[in-house]
Amino acid sequence: MTLVILSSLTLMIFLSALNGYRDSMAKAEQLFDSELIDKARLLSLSFSTQTINTQSNQSLVQHKISAITENDVFAFQVWHKNTLLLKSAFLPDTAIANFKTGFQDNNVLHRRWRIYGLYNKTNNLWILTAERMDLRYILAENIIMGTILPVVIMVPILGLMIWIIVSYGLLPLRKLSSALSDKRADDLSSLAVEKQPIELTQVVISINDLFRRLKVSFLREKRFASDAAHELRTPISAIKIHLHNLSKVIAEDDQSFSQLKQAVDRMGHLIEQILNLNRTSPEQYSKKFTTIDVYELAQNIVVREYAQFDIKNQQIALEGEHAIVQGDVFSLDILLHNLLSNASKYTPEGGSIMVTVSGNKTQTQLQVQDSGPGVPEEKYERLFDRFYRLGGDRHASGTTGCGLGLAIVKQIADLHHAEIVLAKADNSSGLCVRIIFPKEKLI
Question: Do residues 356 and 271 share a domain?
Answer without folding.
Answer: no
